Amino acid sequence: MAAQHRVLVVEDEIPVRELLVYVLRDEGHEVMEARDGAEALRLLDSYPDPSAHICLILLDMMLPRVGGLQVLQHLAERGVYIPVIAMSASRRHLEEATARGAHGTLPKPFDLDAVLAAVDHTCAQRHPPT
After folding, report:
1. Closest CA to 40 of 30, 49, 50, 48
2. For a surface tag, which of 14, 17, 31, 51 has the fewest beta carbons within 10 Å of its beta carbon?
3. Residue 89 has what DSSP assignment?
């Protein structure tokens, strides 16, 4: 099965990250992963135009070293438009993420069907089938 879209998963909890990566790959998506915000920023900064290479970022809000809000701020400062779906168990963190430009939110614990629907919907809007 050919990769449908490239998704960046930024999650510090290993079991959660591995589950997301597995499910998204099983659906045919190409998945990149980062264990914290600093690693995600290094990865994003390695592309001259990351929005041309990454369809969507699934971003945990509570990350070590560099948090989810800092990642959102970095994207805004660089003028990079990649839709971000913020993930958190805290409604306040999800509200802050939305205020800072997150495209959508997924409350934890999340339903995997909701994750897949959000990824498919968001990426289809950015890259409609031809």
Report:
1. 50
2. 14
3. S
Helical residues (DSSP H) of 51-100, grouped into ranges: 68-78, 91-99
Q: State mean pLDDT over 25-39.
A: 96
Parallel/antiparallel/unpaired status of strands 30-34 and 104-107? unpaired
Q: Give 9-24 pLDDT, tens digit per residue.
A: 999 999 999 999 999 9
Q: Which phi and psi angles does 37 have, rounded to 5°?
A: -65, -35
**Cα separation of 102 and 109, whole Å?**
18
List the structure tokens of 24. 């998204």
CATH number of the domain where residue 12 is located: 3.40.50.2300
Q: What's the total number of domains in the chain? A: 1
Look at the alpha carbons of 21, 93, 45, 64 in this order and tell me if their dihedral is positive or negative.
negative
Residue 13, token pair as written in the block: 């909890």
- For residue 37, being part of any structural domain is answered with yes
Q: What string of DSSP letters covers 49-74? A: SGGGT-SEEEEESS-SSS-HHHHHHH
Helices (H), 34-86: 37-45, 68-78
Q: Is a pLDDT exceeding 80 seen at residue 95?
A: yes
